[in-house]
Description:
Order of helices and strands: HHHEHHEEHEEHEEHEEEEHEEH
Strand content: 15-25%
CATH architecture of the largest domain: Alpha-Beta Complex
CATH superfamily of the largest domain: Oxidoreductase, molybdopterin-binding domain
Bound molecules: ligand MTE, molybdenum atom
Number of domains: 2
Distance between the termini: 26 Å
Mean pLDDT: 87
Number of strands: 13
CATH topology of the largest domain: Sulfite Oxidase, Chain A, domain 2
Amino acid sequence: xxxxxxxxxxxxxxxxxxxxxxxxxxxxxxxxxxxxxxxxxxxxxxxxxxxxxxxxxxxxxxxxxxxxxxxxxxxxxxxxxxxxxxxxxxxxxxxxxxxxxxxxxxxxxxxxxxxxxxxxxxxxxxxxxxxxxxxxxxxxxxxxxxxxxxxxxxxxxxxxxxxxxxxxxxxxxxxxxxxxxxxxxxxxxxxxxxxxxxxxxxxxxxxxxxxxxxxxxxxxxxxxxxxxxxxxxxxxxxxxxxxxxxxxxxxxxxxxxxxxxxxxxxxxxxxxxxxxxxxxxxxxxxxxxxxxxxxxxxxxxxxxxxxxxxxxxxx
Length: 315
Ligand SMILES: Nc1nc2c(c(=O)[nH]1)N[C@H]1C(S)=C(S)[C@@H](COP(=O)(O)O)O[C@H]1N2
Ligand SMILES: [Mo]
């Protein structure tokens, strides 16, 4: 059983040491002055995060035995190219994002296509906390204490029609709020997609909170995807559109480099990225590297969906 399994390397996790190691590393990377600025700017400009009422809700530890990564690491070491391509750019620039009010366009092969207010799609009285591993394709990882609802609960609400085979997601693309859109590093809006069985899998989670509070802008406020057996770039942020399709959508990263980023993007230590190995990963806050697990350790819950598929071809 996944929840109970505990391996040697999980027992050495120490979040206090981890945080210090992260901070030291960040100071080395940015220089002490830049690091100081990075911590001051967002705290002055960002709205205080409201607490979310998830404490009484179900709490599920899907990262057996591992503590969540330090909040500072999760909120200051990000990928969100709409706010810049540097790891500290999102924390510095995402205060421009206006996550309230928020609406989501729902279209395609659904019974109830409409533009919904976020509260009409997500039941904020039924939030869960889930501790998920997060493995970026760049071979670093963290452990995230997400708060949200299963994606399947939203799909049930909008009514999946029988011809629908894929779920496609789009991020907001607003130049006023997102300075990174000035650079054509990706084809905006950022688009991701799941096969229907993947979307309906209980692990697929729509995240609205982190560490007991509303999701910070840099992590994809007000709602982003978490699919922990897949590489981080599948975790599309600040979702404004959900479309159900019959055809397999082309995702942003596939379009930008089809040899490097496939549709499935399942974490797989045996299939290298063309430019680097995926066999090991650096857990942010730790020194050294640890082995990467097939499906990021979630094989028991997801491997069946890929039975008979050649995962080197369907990467
Ligand atoms: N819209 C959008 N979503 C995105 C990205 C992005 O650049 N734009 N980056 C992805 C990548 S590569 C990763 S690793 C995760 C990072 O999520 P985090 O910053 O909350 O850790 O977000 C993903 N979602
Ligand atoms: Mo990533």
